[in-house]
C-alpha cells in the first residue's frame, strides 16, 4: 500500500517568488472557491495577514521583511501544502482513503474517512495540515475539483502576475530551468508538487533547506512498525518451538530423572 | 492438610484481570493505529474514531491499574539474591529438558524483569499517549518522539506479554491457577518457588 507518485503525470505549481507583489488575490480566490469562512485577525504591525495557515486558510502569502542599506525590502512567498512526492502525512495516516493521491499526483483528502488522529500534523515536513472545528483534516488540495474539470486552481486563476503557474510539473521545471531560476523542491521528498523559484536561501523564506520526513516519524513507520510485526510473530514462534522441543515444566516432574528417558 | 497454598488474594487477582482486560482493549483498538495492515480491527469498535476514543479510556484505566499493580508488588520484584543469579546463569532452566532447581522466592528474575518492564512501559506509554492525545497543544518534536516511543514500547510490551502468557499457561502447567483461584498446588510451589514455599509454610520443600 506504499504511496507512489507517477512523476510523468504529475501536475503542480511553479511559484516564481520574484513576480509576487503580495496582493493576496490567491488567498481570497481560495476562500471563495472552497467556501471558507473569514478568520478574525488582529493588527500586529505588519501587512502579513493572517500570520499563519488556519483550517479555513489553505494558502497565504508570507511576508519576509529584510533591511538592505537602510531600506526595507519585502519578499513574498506563497505558503501551502507542498504535495510531496514522498509525503509524511500519507505515510502515517492510519485510515485508508482519508488522504490519497490523485492521478495528477496531488494529495487529496476525504474528511468522512478522517478519524481525527492528527498523525499527519506531526509527520508533515512543513507543518501544514490543520484541523477544523469538526476535528477533521484540512489543507490545500490544489482545488481538486477544478483540476479534474480541466481548470486551473482558483489561486492560480486569480494571480495577476503569473507568480503561481499551474501545469504539468516537468514542463514547469524545464521552463524555469531554461530561465536560469534557482529552484526549490525539484528533488526533495521525491519532488514537491509545489516548486519554488527563490531569490535567496530557502531559510530566508522560512523553508527548511533540506526538507525531510522527521527522523522519529521515519523510525516509527519504516523501522519499528515492520520489526515489531516480525517481533510479535517471532515471539509466538519461539514459544511454540520451546513447547514442542524442550517442553513445559511439568508439575509432577520431580527433576531427578536426569538423563533417564522413559518409554 | 490442604494440597494448596494461597498465592494471590482476591483483590490482587481482580486487579490483574483489570490490567489484562484494559491491555487487550488497548491492543485491539490500537492495532489499526499501528499499521494500515490492521485497519480491519477498527470494525470491531464501529470505526477508527470510536476505536481512538476507547483507546483513550482504556489507556487511562491501564495506566493507573498497571502502576498500582506494580506498586503493590514493588517489594517482591525489586529484591535480588544469589539464587536469582543462579537462575539467570542457567536461563531459569528453560533451555534444558532436565529438571533444574533454584532456591527462588515469590518471583523469579524473569517475572521481576517482566514486572519492571511493564511498569516502565506503562509510564512511558501513558506520558507519550498524553502528548499524542493532544498533539496540537505540544511542540511538534515532542509529539513526533512520542509517536515513535509509543510504538516501540507497545512492541516491547506485546512481546513480553506473549512470553508471559506462554509461561503462565502451557509452559508451566499449574501456574494459572494462582491467578484464577488464588491458590497453587504445594507441589507446584515446591518446584518453582521453594524459598517462597518455605517462607509461607515454614516447611522445608
Q: Helical proportion of chain B?
A: 55-70%
**End-to-end Cα distance of chain A:** 53 Å
Largest interface: A-B, 48 and 50 residues
CATH topology of chain B: Fumarate Reductase Cytochrome B subunit
* Strand segment tally of chain A: 10
Count every helix of chain B, treating DSSP H or I runs of 4 or more residues as helices. 8
Major sheet of chain B: size, sense and barrel closure?
A: 2 strands, antiparallel
As a whole number of angstroms, the C-alpha radius of gyration of chain A is: 26 Å
The fraction of residues in strands of chain A falls at 15-25%
* SSE pattern of chain A, N- to C-terminal: EHEEHEEHEEHHEHEEH
Structure in words:
- With 263 residues, chain A is of the alpha+beta class.
- Chain A has helices at residues 25-34, 88-92, 119-123, 144-148, 154-158, 169-178, 215-245, and strands at 11-16, 60-68, 71-79, 99-101, 107-109, 130-131, 137-138, 164-168, 182-184, 194-198.
- Chain A has 2 domains: 7-209, Alpha-Beta Plaits (2-Layer Sandwich); 214-248.
- Chain A has 7 helices and 10 strands.
- In chain A, the strands form 4 sheets. Chain A has a 4-stranded mixed beta sheet with strand order 8-1-10-9.
- Chain B has a single domain, classed as Transmembrane di-heme cytochromes, Chain C (Fumarate Reductase Cytochrome B subunit, Up-down Bundle), CATH 1.20.950.20.
- Chain B has helices at 10-34, 48-77, 82-89, 109-133, 140-168, 176-180, 186-192, 194-201; strands at residues 4-6, 183-185.
- Chain B is elongated.
- Chain B starts with a strand and ends with a helix.
- In chain B, 31% of the residues are buried.
- The interface between A and B is large, with 48 and 50 residues.
